[in-house]
Amino acid sequence: MNRETIKEILHSEGILPLSKYGQNFLCDDQIIQSIVDLCELKREDMVIEVGPGLGSLSYPLSLMTDHLACVEIDKGLSERLKETITNATIFHKDFLKFERPENINIDVVVSNIPYYIMTDIMKKIYGEYSDARKMVFMVEDDAVARIDCGPNTKQYGPLAILGKLYGDYKYEFKVPHTAFVPQPNTTSAVISFTRKDSAEVLNTEFVKFLNTCFAMRRKMLKKNLSSIASAEAIDEAFRACGISENTRAEELAPEMFSQLFKTIVL
Q: Which domain holds residue 241?
């Protein structure tokens, strides 16, 4: 969908973009196609798109796969998608409350993530959809620093750890604010992840575990973990993993959190 098409849809159908949902609709055909290409789709792939909006990505995605599911929080937009993209399954649901259909393998996750809720959405995706072989996201460019960072940095936390453990990360390209209607005040970025074996540890319990580890960043990790395990269990786990008792969460590499989780929780 180009800019003229988006504006015509908004005008003719009386759609008012809602800031509370972070609705900035992608309107650059070249960028849209580049994102679709990054998904590396096969016809049989099961694809889930979070926050499809007007369907700028949904329509070209639906041409590439027979199994597209879109989760849209806006009732009006979800009803419109049901009418315009008939070969996809449209769910009118807040993704953070969306229950993944049982017994369905997910191959690709793609999303133009609303910036105001990026962290929560990405945590849910990593926790519940880590079987996907590929993830392609559009995020705020400034937020990439919280995704692509390592230990002992200010930005390091659960989001960076989950991404590192899930797969190989790549910063694909910037997206200017002029590629949206209405135009946001910030530059966006398209990033991708390709799954690797360490993604096996990712689940909702591991996400909760990481949140606990970083609940109080400046406190020692042992203090944070005391809410879920006894002092004896923590000491034993630290010894088994070779972690100093004075360690803070921000000092540990992603793989160490995986080991610690398996020792304390599993």
A: 204-264
Residue 43's pLDDT is 95
> Do 132 and 21 lie in a common domain?
yes
Q: Of 170 and 86, which is predicted with more confidence?
A: 170
Does the pLDDT of residue 18 top 80, yes or no? Answer: no
Amino acid residing at 62? S
Please report how many Cα atoms fall inside a 13 Å half-sphere around the Cα of residue 11, on the Cβ side. Answer: 6
User: Tens digit of pLDDT for each residue in 165-222?
Assistant: 999 999 999 999 999 998 988 999 999 999 998 899 999 999 999 999 999 888 999 9
Q: What angle do CA 167, 169, 175 make, to 5 degrees?
A: 140
Q: Indicate if 184 and 216 belong to the same structural domain.
A: no
CA 174 vs. chain centroid, Å, equals 17
Measured CA to CA, the distance from residue 138 to residue 125 in angstroms comes to 14
Cis peptide before 182 (omega within 30 of 0): yes
Residue range 127-131: mean pLDDT, rounded: 96
| pTM for the model | 0.94
Q: What is the pLDDT of residue 261?
A: 96
Q: Is 136 in the same domain as 197? A: yes
Q: Are strands 167-175 and 134-140 parallel, antiparallel or unpaired?
A: unpaired
The string of DSSP letters for 221-256 reads HHHHHTTTS-HHHHHHHHHHHT--TT--GGGS-HHH
Domain containing residue 91: CATH number:
3.40.50.150
If one counts the domains in the chain, the total is: 2
Give the C-alpha separation, 8 to 30, whole Å.
19
Pair (174, 242) in one structural domain: no
For the chain, how big is the Rg over CA atoms in Å?
20
